[in-house]
Design a protein that fits this description.
Blueprint (H helix, E strand, L loop, with lengths): L1 E7 L3 E7 L6 E8 L9 H11 L1 E8 L9 H17 L3 E5 L3 H11 L4 H23 L2
Parallel strand pairs: 1-4, 4-5
Antiparallel strand pairs: 1-2, 2-3
């Protein structure tokens, strides 16, 4: 059973996928979206779900440091609802506080240029979100 991890922003969705045993997360791709124009990348997400036989989706849930839910978190909740309605799969909101910052720090330490980091940051954050969830299940 594969699990998909998503890092959802207003312009991109980073995608990660678990191995079949649910032990490790690997980065897949970054999907361009346009939240303002109601373009959410659901067609591509659906293709990945079908090809990889995904049974569950973990979505990074950006809470504020004081544990409240702000505008970005509310948008993420709506995105998760769209996923549930579109694919009829369990969708788990996973606390992702600091995951993007941790991903950026890791890429900086790897001496990746700012331009290259921008292209992969969401995918790496999705890996960190999904791996955190997978580790919690053991």
């Amino acid at each position: 059973m594969r699990i998909m991890g998503l890092d959802v922003g207003s312009k991109t969705v980073g995608v990660a996928m678990s191995d079949e045993l649910g032990w490790t997360a690997q980065g897949m791709e970054t999907i361009a979206i346009n939240e303002e124009n109601n373009v959410f990348g659901l067609e591509r997400i659906g293709e990945l779900i079908e090809v990889h036989d995904v049974q569950k989706i973990v979505v990074g849930f950006p809470k504020n440091m004081n544990n409240t839910v702000g505008p970005r978190g509310e948008a993420t909740q709506k995105f998760a609802d769209r996923l549930r309605e579109s694919f009829h799969l369990p969708v788990i909101l996973w606390d992702e506080r600091l995951s993007t910052m941790a991903a950026e720090r890791m890429l900086i330490e790897a001496d990746m240029s700012r331009k290259k980091r921008k292209k992969v940051i969401d995918k790496v954050a999705a890996v960190m979100i999904l791996q955190g969830f997978l580790d919690s299940q053991k």
